[in-house]
Amino acid sequence: MHLDSGNYKGTYKLIGGEICFDFTNTISWRETDHPHEWFDIEENLAQWAQITGILDCNQSRQLLHSTKDFNNELEQLKKTRLFLYNLFNSQITQGFISNDALHKLSLLTQKANSHQILSPSPSGYIWSWQQGIKPSELILFSVLKSASDVLTRGDLSRIKKCPSCQWLFLDTSKNKRRRWCTMEDCGNRHKVNAFNKRNKSK
Ligand SMILES: [Zn+2]
Fold first, then answer.
1. How far is the CA of 69 from the centre of ligand 1 (A)?
2. Which residues neighbour 7 within 8 Å (Cβ) at sequence distance 6 or greater?
3. What is the DSSP code (8-state) at residue 186?
4. Which tens digit of pLDDT belongs to each residue from 26-64?
5. Is the dihedral of CA 92, 48, 147, 66 positive or negative?
6. Distance (Å) from CA 47 to ligand 1 centroid
7. If you measure from the C-alpha of residue 33 to the centroid of ligand 1, how many angstroms do you get, rounded to a whole number?
8. Complete domains list, the chain, with CATH
9. Chain centroid, CA 104 distance in Å
10. Measured at the alpha carbon of residue 65, what is the angle toward residues 61 and 67, in degrees to the nearest 5?
11. What is the pTM for the complete model shown?
């Protein structure tokens, strides 16, 4: 199951390691003059929510077809996506998040968490989302919960940004030396460019 890339040559990959990063990564090359917006193709939002496991097949169909406010909901999601990107970018590049941004994330996450209920699971009990939440809200709540989980779980130096395409990811490697979104894409491109540069200067 892939996101439709339209005329764009790149591919979308779930490499963030956390839903909040996979969400911010639905814009590629964000800080350049050629960003790519994956949600310009509306079906991609439903597809994305399905491949990340947030929505099931019926819910993702419902998101696209039975929602009167789809455009408003998409705008709301895009705003949240930008907010989360700026928040993590601040942590990565400056080592901290402003009080204003933290406060905003607290409020948004509190609202999301108020829609969770305890329910039985094979291993005991789990928090799960209430029945009847709109699909777009399920996406919103899930990415907010993921973002606050990432911030409170520990090693913040594992939150990284690919220096090439600006995708965010959680570096779970043993030695914490992952630099690129993937070696096959930006890692290789960097290697080839460095090789060409070396050869040129010979
Ligand atoms: Zn990259």
1. 33
2. none
3. I
4. 999 999 999 999 999 989 999 999 999 999 999 999 988
5. positive
6. 21
7. 15
8. 19-200 (1.10.3300.10)
9. 18
10. 110
11. 0.92
